[in-house]
């Protein structure tokens, strides 16, 4: 028979879990900000290079990489746990299953 965990034990594991999840979410969001910063810096350079030679080829990397940045942002900010859309869908499913608000 295993002993029941004390309330302080479950509280500390809950705090550790919350800390781990918070760090993971913050890391994902920081990763998106870095991605967006690099996108802007590199593409400003590409646009300047293309414009200096009288061409407009820089629009293709802007669109391709921009789509990747958009998908990355959707995953980080909307779909991933902690994102607004994910939380709304999770809450809707809880209500549909009759579970109310459990976290």
Order of helices and strands: HHH
Q: How many whole angstroms does the radius of gyration measure?
A: 22 Å
Mean pLDDT across all amino acids: 83
Number of strands: 0
The coarse overall form would be elongated
Q: Which regions are unreliable across 5 or more consecutive residues at pLDDT < 50?
A: none
What is the count of DSSP helices, taking H or I runs of 4+ residues? 3
Compute the separation of the termini in Å. Answer: 28 Å
Walkthrough of the structure:
The protein has 103 residues and is mainly alpha-helical. The protein has one domain (8-96). Helices cover 78% and strands 0% of the residues. It contains 3 helices and no strands. It has helices at residues 7-52, 59-79, 84-96. Helix 1 (7-52) packs antiparallel against helix 2. The longest helix has 46 residues, at 7-52. The chain is elongated. It starts with 6 loop residues before the first helix and ends in a 7-residue tail after the last helix. The relative contact order is 0.08. This is 2TM domain-containing protein. Residues 20-79 form the 2TM domain. The chain crosses the membrane at residues 30-51, 63-86. Keywords: Membrane, Transmembrane, Transmembrane helix. Residues 1-20 are annotated as: Disordered.
